[in-house]
Design brief:
By secondary structure, this protein is mostly helical. It is 67% helix and 3% strand. It is built from 5 helices and 2 strands. The radius of gyration is 17 Å and the shape is elongated.
């Protein structure tokens, strides 16, 4: 169980690294006239993602969940794949990537990297991680609760992002 705690803490450290990148990118976007949308749902998103990490550890430790070898190792691979996809998104969007919804007028939409195939690949990474990380060590309640709440939040978030992009017609030209 100690190694699982280390895994969850490593994901938490990765999330902190994302926040560092996001803060830098927020400054970059706002300096170029970026417009932020969706401030109302951002605190709920932060709380949900924090609860995922806490829930993983709490459920495993308090319920004495066993490590299911076959499922566990498959889920470790899924967690690693989710991180790879997330950082591919971050790298592809460059300074435009953010944990907030900030759109810079006049910049073309990004159509490379994973955005070539999916409109919101970062959310695929979030959904995969939200299922896989808890299931690495059998925390199925956390996986279910996070997935249900995340689905509701993603409806709000994707509508917000799509609306922000639609209000800025200059962004509709694909790069």
């Amino acid at each position: 169980m100690t190694w699982y705690t280390v895994l969850v803490l490593a994901v938490a450290a990765e999330r902190l690294a994302e926040l560092v990148v996001a803060r830098r990118n927020t400054r970059w976007s706002l300096a170029r006239g970026g417009v932020e949308s969706g401030r109302e749902h951002y605190p709920a998103m932060v709380a949900l993602h924090t609860a995922l990490l806490a829930g993983c550890l709490a459920e495993v430790h308090l319920s004495d969940r066993p490590f299911p070898p076959v499922l566990g190792w498959v889920m470790v691979a899924a967690v690693v794949a989710a991180q790879a996809l997330r950082w591919w998104c971050i790298r592809t969007l460059g300074p435009r990537w953010n944990t907030r919804v900030i759109v810079v007028p006049g910049l073309p939409r990004v159509a490379g990297g994973p955005y070539r195939w999916l409109s919101h690949p970062n959310y695929v990474a979030v959904a995969a991680e939200g299922i896989a990380l808890p299931l690495v060590h059998g925390a199925w309640v956390t996986a279910l609760v996070f997935t249900a709440l995340n689905a509701v939040l993603m409806v709000v978030r994707i509508r917000c992002e799509d609306g922000a992009l639609a209000r800025l017609p200059a962004l509709d030209a694909r790069a």
